[in-house]
Every structure is written in structure tokens, then in C-alpha cells.
Amino acid sequence: MKKPYIKLLGLFIAILLIGFLFTSLRSSKKYKFDMSAEELHSELVASNHEMDPNKAWDILSNNNDDYIFVDIRNPREFANFHIEGAVNVPLQRVLDDEFIPYLKNEKKKVLYSNESIKANEIRLLLTQYGYDNLFVLQGGARYWKENMLSKDVFKSRGEYNDNKLKFDPNKMKAQK
User: Fold this and answer.
1) Structure confidence by residue, pLDDT tens digits, 63-84
2) Which ranges of the chain does DSSP label H, i.e. alpha helix?
3) CATH number for the 37-151 domain, one of 1.20.120.640, 3.40.50.2300, 3.40.250.10, 3.40.30.10?
């Protein structure tokens, strides 16, 4: 004589397996890689995906609508400082449906974080999912804040050098 709870347990396990199968099929359709590893490697080696801060400065100065600046830091960091006109797409939520209009369009996207490393990782992930026109701001938000914000006031174009002083206080004392 078989016990009825064994049949119920078998039916329960079968329902769970079918549920997992359908769930995995649905999720694999949403996040399917568009490129093989070889294609991705070729694209990464062949393309120039880094954007020079001076070029980014020119794009922003000329109000070029062909570009979107995407800050992938958390909302608190974004609120403390961000590049003017940038949109905040936190890296933990970069694949959320609400951010598709910012990331999957014809415009060129310039990704940035505090440094370039995280933005490069997100660029790689998005490229694998079929997103295109992605660039990474060299140096990230930290470099931008420390060096580019005062660029037009204190630094001449094309002559930027971190180690070069624009005026020497000792010379100023000697002139008095």
C-alpha cells in the first residue's frame, strides 16, 4: 500500500520543475547575449570606446544633442556632483526596463563613474546585450571635477598639465 503523501510530493516536485523551466526560458529571452566571446573581443580591440575629457568638454560646450552623458554612480553620489545634463542610471539597475530609453537609442552614450573602471565594465556588459554607441569618459567624474570644471578659467586649451603651476607665489613676492 502506497502512502498518498508520496504522490503529492512527486506532483509538487513536478510542478516546481515546470515552473523553474518556464522562468528560466522567460529570463533567457530578456537577457540574451547578442555577441559571441570572439565577436565581443574583436569589437573591443578594434574600436576606440574611450572619450577624451577635452572632447567631452567640447560636446557639452556646444550643446551637442547627439550625446547623452550617463552617470552610473549611486543616486547620492549623483546628487553631490554630476556633469551638467547627465542622467543617473545606477550600475546596479542598468538593465532595468525604466532605463532602456536612455541606453538603447541612436544617440551616443558617454558612461562615467568615479573612475573609468566601473564604466568600462558596464560598457562591456551593455555591449554584450546589444547596446551600441557606448563610450567611457577617461578619468571619470573624479577627474572631471578636479580638472575640467575650472578649465576655462584657469587652464588654457591644449596645455593641460597637472604638475605645472600657472603662477609661482615666490615670483609674486619678488615683484613687491
Assistant:
1) 999 999 999 999 999 999 999 8
2) 4-30, 37-46, 53-61, 75-80, 100-103, 116-128, 140-143, 151-154, 169-175
3) 3.40.250.10
